[in-house]
Predict the structure.
Amino acid sequence: MCIFCKIVNGEIPSYKVYEDDDILAFLDISQVTKGHTIVIPKKHVTNILDTDKETYLKVVDKVYDLANKIAKNLNASGVNILHNANEVAGQSVNHLHFHIIPRYSKDDSIKISFEDSEKQDMDQVLKQIKGE
Ligand code: 5GP
Ligand code: ZN
């Protein structure tokens, strides 16, 4: 059983931010910033690339509510919403989850950088995405 399923079952304790029949939100143990929260479906599914849309959208719907509530009540100036899908993208727990990371300053201990890489043939990329 995965770590997050154990949290759902109460085998591992957590600080619960929100709970209903389908969704659980709890404080991330790492607290990258104050209030860093994980939102998951109680059902074990892996990530956006391997999940039914209904389950995914239920989680996203709650992420919307909680991100706004957390940012407001913790007086955050902004928020990062992060969903890592598969190891290559940084997923370490293979149970679908969103990070809600409230931001207080540009110097918070989180680094997200977009750097230049090889140039792409945009027409070709578009064709591939559209399946042409
Ligand atoms: P990922 O890297 O898969 O996107 O994020 C997994 C997150 O789960 C990490 O930020 C990590 O701190 C958090 N995490 C891992 N184990 C536990 C745990 O037992 N309890 C809590 N609350 N968070 C956990
Ligand atoms: Zn699980």
Helices lie at 3-9, 53-73, 122-130. The radius of gyration is 17 Å. The CA atoms of residues 39 and 67 lie 10 Å apart.
